[in-house]
């Protein structure tokens, strides 16, 4: 099919491009949607689709453009969707991304690498273990760690939250895409927010699109 027809049809339907699988993600697919490449897992968007819109709205809500973000840590790099929007907002930013799935890193390099800052450093590793040994502090830590449509519970543990809090510079901000609202009741939302705030006293939660976002800025 001619490329211009693929582009036009993508505004009416998803156009599959290439499928992948890995030990961590048995189903991954790159599609063209609304004229752009996106990366989906079995049940959720991983990069550049609804997820991109989610973080755009979240960053707009917290007015991140007013915060001097010089360096950022992205846990759950995926296809680089968060890195792309940060590169647009902060042209001089230094980004470190951690992604557990080597296949996803390969997809990012093949389809999306031109969208984020060329100096972005991507580490293939377990984010839970990485934050134990990370010594550099950041202005922003963005957490978007999903296996299909679930966030592993260890990423809401006391140990993980303590390690994240220790990685923030004064004035630094953490943004955590905690869970899909379809997976939680109001009681769970309250519990998750209270747990987060034990380690981030100025933290709060927001419902953005279909997700629960946890946010805090380190004062002092």
Word description of this protein:
By secondary structure, the chain is of the alpha/beta class. The chain has two domains: 3-44, no CATH class; 46-217, 3-Layer(aba) Sandwich (Rossmann fold), CATH 3.40.50.150. It has seven helices and eleven strands. It has a seven-stranded mixed sheet with strand order 7-6-5-8-9-11-10. Strands 1-2-3-4 form a four-stranded antiparallel sheet, with helices on both faces. The longest helix is centred in the C-terminal third of the chain and has 14 residues, at 186-199. The mean pLDDT is 90.
Shape, please? globular
CATH architect. name of the largest domain: 3-Layer(aba) Sandwich
Q: What is the mean predicted local confidence, pLDDT?
A: 90
Strand order, biggest sheet? 7-6-5-8-9-11-10
CATH topology of the largest domain: Rossmann fold
| CATH homolog superfamily of the largest domain | Vaccinia Virus protein VP39
Number of helices: 7
Structural class: alpha/beta
What is the H/E order? Answer: HEEEEHEHEHEHEHEHEE
CATH class term of the largest domain: Alpha Beta
C-alpha Rg (nearest Å): 17 Å
Classify the beta-strand content into a percent band: 25-35%
Q: N-to-C terminal Cα separation, in Å?
A: 57 Å
Compute the number of strand runs: 11
Low-pLDDT segments, ≥5 res = none
Domains (count): 2
Largest sheet: 7 strands, mixed
Give me some keywords for this one.
220 residues; alpha/beta; Rossmann fold; globular
Write the layout of secondary structure elements.
Layout: H1 3-9, E1 15-20, E2 28-33, E3 36-40, E4 45-47, H2 50-61, E5 71-75, H3 81-89, E6 94-99, H4 102-112, E7 121-124, H5 127-133, E8 138-143, H6 158-165, E9 168-180, H7 186-199, E10 204-208, E11 211-217
Parallel strand pairs: 5-6, 5-8, 6-7, 8-9
Antiparallel strand pairs: 1-2, 2-3, 3-4, 9-11, 10-11
